[in-house]
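Pipeline run #58 for the internal structure catalog. This entry was flagged by the ingest filter as a single-chain record with no existing model, so it goes straight to prediction. Upstream metadata was stripped on purpose; only the residue string is passed forward. Reviewer on rotation: M.T. Logging verbosity set to normal.
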Amino acid sequence: MKAIKRRKFGNTGLEVTEVSLGAMNLRMLDTEDEARTIVRKALDLGINLIDTARAYSGTKDDGRVFESETFIKEVLSERDDLKEPIVIVTKGHGYNPKAFEEELNLSRSKLDVQGFHDLKIGQTSVKLVVFYHGLSKERFEEIKSTGAIEQALKLKEEGYFDYLGFSSHNGHENVIMEALDSGYFDVVELPCSVFAPKFGHEQENYGNIIKHAHDKGVAVINMKAFGGNGMVGKTEIFKKYCDISTKDRLLYCLTNEYISTVDAGCRFIEELELDVEVSHMAHLSKGKCEQLEQEAKRVTDVMNNACRECTHCLEKFECPQGLDFPGILALHTRYKISEEFNGDIEEIKNAYSLLKQKADECIACGECIQWCEYKLDIPVLLEETHSVLGS
């Protein structure tokens, strides 16, 4: 088996495989065996970085709880053949000292991380990277004002984890730049894809943020390389107008020399194997990347101010009305795309009619807005959804 190419992981002294395993989707699989099989296969293929989070968990209809961290622990605990440390990235929503330490200890427990400094899961050496999840202006202000950074650096020094990082999204560029320039962070995780390329381009006020992180010695994990969880369904709607292959989506990201690894989330072994196969292919030319961006732009403008179906809002928040607002907004996004590209609008309206709770049950309390990584005004979008799908 041909070894996956590797890149420097910032200034950590580590090298990581160009393709890594994004474990968010493990919670969405039907059986525990499927989840474990994905992790086993990633390790067998030589992948040495797994990206997860404390909040990557889900409850099945029968009450079973699927936690990505637990699946990773179970697989690593059964291995005695791994000759190098596996990099484990986990994320938490602890933005003050107490909450950060609680989330860290819970992640260490779920992952069954043993020891300090020389960390292990079972017999496997690991390098633990702990993130502040979804950094925004409000969250970073809380981190700074409460002493959470100092607490995190103290725990890092004591060997509870190896490296400190953060993830963030479009719309938070000023905070990302401040955090990168602070000198506190070893790793950053940012979305970049042919459908959302701006973090890899020069921006008027911020320059090329991914390059800036690289130049600061901060390792860059590229998330959402394929456009996000909901892109599969959306692609089916607009593929006659924009049909960019999975291969080209991944190669587009791998071509960026400033990233350390592409976090490739998957639900099937075949996807994982394809990702590794693609990583051996020649990178794209500048002209090809520009061509793909122009093709993608035919549809990305339609998706502005629309739900990406990332489901991050559900990681720490539950609607007080019990409303499945991400599911409702997913239908709204597909409606907008279908309307633009001559898709089946009636099918989407029918799917909406079958929902037990409709968008008009939202009481517009606004509590959900702070949990949207893309700063969408969810109550307003729900009102719009009902006006077009409920008629």
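catalog note: The chain has a mean pLDDT of 90.
catalog note: The radius of gyration is 21 Å.
status: ready for reviewer M.T.
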